[in-house]
Amino acid sequence: MASKLLRAVVLGPPGSGKGTVCERIARSFGLQHLSSGQFLRESLRGDGGECPRGRPSITAAFPPPMTAPFCRGACTGFPRTLGQAQALDRICELDLVISLNIPFETLKDRLSARWVHPASGRVYNMDFNPPHVQGVDDLTGEPLVQREDDKPEAVAARLRKYKDAAKPVIELYKSRGILHSFSGTETNKIWPYVYTLLSSRIPPLLSDEEN
Asked: What region holds the Adenylate kinase active site lid domain (predicted)?
């Protein structure tokens, strides 16, 4: 099966569309989509380890039962730092790393336009995925809120922090010859290039048009 033939990571700053890209990879190539958020939720439920101060750590959130499926899938949101990349090396060897390069201003605009329904976690973007009625959740009619870290000043700080932390990670994978970078402002325009890359490694289950 294709899911046994590829181990990939999709890297990108907040708002870069890496979750969307990874979901399309999972559908098109029969891979598992594993996110750092998924592992953290497992850790919070007591299924993973905890760091000394009681906060679940990304590295600790990869307990032994999770390492086997991870080595047959595509992961987003991890690793974010060089230390996490080195921890990942102890779990399995990556076949390729996809890095999404999106202009700073595009990311800032995307994230600043994001509002959420706190109870469900549903996310809306006022530019390309707005709610049916401004300011309220489509399903419950409850008010939407903008998270503190999605406000313009906080967004700029988050993006700078990501860039500083990600630079050594990207350099590490570049030195290994497994880094593939894609630049653009729209996920739909970047995706065909990602699809072509992966199609050269494993047979797709869906055509590009079907996804």
From this structure: 114-149
Q: Which residues contact 200 (CB under 8 A, 6 or more apart)?
A: none
- How many domains does the structure of the chain reveal? 1
Strands 114-116 and 123-125: antiparallel
Find out whether 25 and 194 touch, Cβ atoms under 8 Å: yes
Confidence grade of residue 209 (pLDDT, cut at 50, 70, 90): low
Instruction: Quote the domain boundaries for residue 187.
Output: 8-40+72-200
Other CB atoms within 10 Å distance of the CB of residue 96: 19
Distances (CA, A) of 60 to 43, 55, 69: 8, 10, 16
CATH number at residue 27: 3.40.50.300
